[in-house]
Design a protein that fits this description.
Helices cover about 45% and strands about 15% of the residues. By secondary structure, it is of the alpha+beta class.
């Protein structure tokens, strides 16, 4: 039975390459079976997408649909194995991240002085070091997440040793998703994540599922390491932290403290301002969010975690 499933998966993989469609395979009769991707739909796209969505719910398979002849077409999906994984603390995840950071730093190019440390925070390079290739696709289709169909932002295939990223999302989401997939590879490799898909994420919230939450924490720590972020913060603002007072109100927004409080009523709104601002008094700079190529919300949350804002 295992050999049969393995042979089927190999056939499906080869079919996808031959047909140039990562969701396609040839059925037993040699027919072409595949998900209909958004880029492939020209006419009646709304009706077709709705029909596929209904089929997936009815067939209880987020990768399936009924073809024009009423036949059942679906990928052979290796579902996540029901294994009991130990819960990882943020401290233990941080140690794994720091190890990768050291490895990237030690393997930098021949002229290390010309490479800013921030440029080493590249999840794609880290994935290549782990033996995983990175593919960019126009779409990765949809999958079921917390009871609803969502557009997949990333996909991890352990058997193929590859990570796929959807170009449907902005660069900060792609970057965070790559770091999230790197987290799965480093923390959860070998635990049934073949053909595993992930929702779009930019670090603005954590997943409910423990495994996904750990990958999110990994991505946050990988892209926003504490020491480096503190160094940039102090270089930009000349302070070890910022709080709302008359001086910061004037330097950040050119406003009185009263007007400042009226505009930024909560800590999160203040943190967002610090994460996105590109001027502090007469000092101009690229915002922290843009410098680290991360969303403003994710940067704001990290600033709060570290007590910087």
């Amino acid at each position: 039975m295992k050999n049969t499933i393995h042979d089927q998966n190999l056939a499906v993989s080869q079919d996808r390459k031959n047909l140039e469609n990562p969701y396609a395979h040839l059925n037993d009769q040699g027919g072409f079976s595949a998900l209909i991707l958004p880029s492939m739909i020209k006419n009646n796209s709304q009706d077709t997408n709705q029909a596929i969505s209904d089929d997936r719910k009815r067939l209880e398979n987020p990768y399936s649909h009924l073809d024009a002849q009423g036949g059942y077409s679906a990928l052979i999906v290796s579902r996540r194995k029901k294994v009991s994984l130990p819960i990882l603390s943020e401290t233990s995840i941080k140690k794994r991240v720091q190890k990768i950071h050291r490895q990237l730093w030690n393997q930098r190019n021949e002229n290390p002085s010309a490479i800013p440390p921030i440029k080493l925070l590249n999840p794609e390079i880290a994935l290549l070091r782990e033996g995983f290739s990175v593919k960019r696709e126009m779409s990765l289709g949809q999958y079921s997440f917390e009871g609803r169909l969502v557009e997949a932002a990333g996909a991890l295939d352990e058997e193929d040793a590859s990570v796929s990223i959807s170009l449907q999302f902005p660069p900060d989401v792609q970057r965070f998703t790559l770091a999230h997939e790197l987290g799965h590879v480093v923390l959860h490799k070998g635990h049934g994540l073949n053909l595993h898909r992930d929702r779009p994420a930019n670090g603005s919230y954590l997943a409910r599922d423990q495994v996904e939450k750990e990958a999110d924490i990994f991505a946050k720590l990988f892209l926003l390491p504490e020491k480096l972020l503190r160094n940039y913060f102090e270089a930009f603002f000349g302070e070890t932290h910022l709080e709302a007072n008359e001086q910061t109100a004037f330097l950040l927004a050119g406003a009185s403290l009263q007007d400042f409080y009226a505009r930024y009523r909560s800590r999160r709104s203040f943190s967002r301002l610090v994460a996105s601002c590109e001027r502090y008094g007469n000092h101009r700079f690229v915002s922290l969010a843009k410098t680290f190529e991360i969303s403003v919300e994710a940067m704001a949350i990290r600033l709060e975690e570290l007590g910087l804002a």
